Amino acid sequence: MIQEDEAPNYAKGLAWTLSFNVVMKVTAGVIAIFIARKLGPAEIGIFGLLSTIYILAEQMREAGLKQAYYNDNGITPIKFRTYARLSVMSGVTFGVILFLLSWPLANFFDKPQLAWSAQWAAFATFVNGLAVIPMASLHKGGRFRDVGIIETVGTVVSSLVALGLVLVGGFGFGALVVQLVLRSTIVFALAFWQQPFSVLNHDRQMARSILRICTPLVATDLLWLVYSLADQLTITKLLGTTPNGFYAQGKRILSIPSDFIFFPMVRTVAVAIGNRSTSPDDLARTFMKALCLATLLLGGVMGACAMLAKPVVLALLTEKFAATIPIFGIICLTEGSKLLGSFAGSALVASGRSKIPLFAWILPYPVAIAGIWMNWSHLSLAAIVWSFAAGMVVVNVVVITAAFRFLRPALRQLRRFAQCMAISAATTAFAYVLSFLPLTPWSVVGIAAISIPVFHALLIGTIFAKNPLAFMSLSGARRFRESL
C-alpha cells in the first residue's frame, strides 16, 4: 500500500537524514579506513576497480526510474506497480549482464579475483532492483525517518560484519565483497517490509510512457557515470592497481564529508524539486536555495580538505598512502564541481529540459582525452587525475550556467549565491593558513576540525546578517534557511 504525505516537511526530512548520516556515513567511513590500513593499497585497488564496475551496473540498472518517480506527481496504485515491475526487470537484466561479463572483465584487467567477486556484485545489483521503488516511495511520501533507519541498519551491520571478517576471520578482499552483498539484502528486506509491492497487474501503455521519460535520463546518467568511473578504470589499465589504490582512498576520504553533507541534501532536494516541478517560480527558488546551501557547505569542506591534504592523508592513512597527497586537492576540485552541478541538472530535468544535461555531458570526454594525450610521453597519476578534473569542471560550469539561463532565478538569489562562493573561498584561505602549523598531522586536523566550522559560521553571520553570531542560537537554523 502506498503511503505518501501530500506535503512532506523537507526541513524535518533533511534533519532526519543528516542525523542518520552521522551514524551511517561516519561509522562506515571510519571502518573502511581501518580496513584499508589493514589490507593495503593493492587489495583496496582491486576492490576500487570492482566498485567502479558495480556502480556502473547500478546506474544502468536504475535506468532513470527513481528520478522519474520523484518527478511524477500522479502516482496511483497501478502506476506504482508499473514502476516496481520496470525496476525488477531492470535488476534482473543488468544482474545477468554483469554476471556474464565477470570472466571477460577478469581477463581484461588480468585480475582473477574479479571473476567471482563480480558475480556476487551481479547478485547485489539484482537485489537492489527489488528495493529501488519501495525506497523511492517512502522518500517521496515524506517518510525520511524510515528511509534513514533502513539504510543505516544495512550500512552499519554490513560494515561491522566486514570488519569482523578482517579482524577475526582473516579475510582480505572477500570481506568487502560480503559487505557489498549483505547491505543490499538487508536494505531490500526492510524496504519490502515497510512498503510491499507486487509486479502483477501493471499497465503496459503506462510502462511505455515511463520509459520514454526515462530515455534521456538514462543517456545522461550513463554519460555521467562512465566519465565519473573512467578515471579509476584508466588509472588501473595504464598505471596498475596500486596507483588506483592511492586514488581510490583519496576519494574514499572525501566520501565521508561529501556523503554526510551532500547525500542528505540531494535526496531531500530531489523530492522537493519533483513535487514543485509544475511551478517555475517555486522550482527556481528551490534550486537556488539548494545551490547556495551546497556551495556554503560543500565548497567550504572541499576547499578546506584540499588545503589540508598532507595532514589529512597522513593522519587517516599514514605514510603508506603518502602518494595520495599530491592528487588529493585535485580530487577535491573534481568532487566539488560534480556535486554542485548535480543540483542544476536535476532542476533542468524537472523543468522539462532534460536534453541540456544530456548534450552537456558529451563535453568532458574530449577534454579528458586531450589532457591524457598531451601528457602521454610522461604520463603520471597526477596528469590523469588533472585531465579528468578539467572535463568535470567544464561540464558542470555549462550545466549550472544553463540552469541560471532557463530557470531565471531572482536577482537577490544570484547575489546570495555570489556571497556563498566568497564565503567558501575565504574559508579555504583560512584552511591554507592552518596547513602551515608546525604540529603533528592529527594535531593540525584536530585544530582545523574545531576552528574552521567556527570561522565559517561567523563569516556567514557577518555576510548574511551583519552579525557574526546571528545564526548561533536555537532559532538560528530556521533564520539561516530563510536567509538563503
Concise synopsis of the structure shown:
The chain is built from 18 helices and no strands.
General description of the model:
- The chain is mainly α.
- It contains 18 helices and no strands.
- Helix 14 (364-374) runs antiparallel to helix 15 (381-407).
- The longest helix has 36 residues, at 204-239.
- The radius of gyration is 22 Å and the shape is globular.
- The two termini are 37 Å apart.
In what range is the share of β-strand residues? under 5%
Low-confidence stretches: 1-5
Largest sheet: none
SS summary, helix count: 18
Which percent range fits the helix content? over 70%
Q: Please, what is the average pLDDT?
A: 85
Return the string of H and E elements.
HHHHHHHHHHHHHHHHHH
Q: Count all strands and give the number.
A: 0
Principal-axis shape equals globular
Radius of gyration: 22 Å
Termini Cα gap: 37 Å
Q: Which structural category do the helix and sheet elements fall into?
A: mainly alpha
Summarize the helices and strands and which ones pair or pack.
Layout: H1 10-39, H2 41-62, H3 65-71, H4 77-108, H5 113-140, H6 144-167, H7 173-194, H8 204-239, H9 241-275, H10 280-307, H11 309-317, H12 325-350, H13 355-360, H14 364-374, H15 381-407, H16 411-434, H17 441-465, H18 476-483
Helix pairs in contact: 1-6, 1-9, 2-4, 2-5, 2-8, 2-9, 3-5, 4-5, 4-8, 5-7, 6-7, 8-9, 8-15, 9-10, 9-12, 10-12, 10-16, 11-12, 11-17, 12-15, 14-15, 16-17
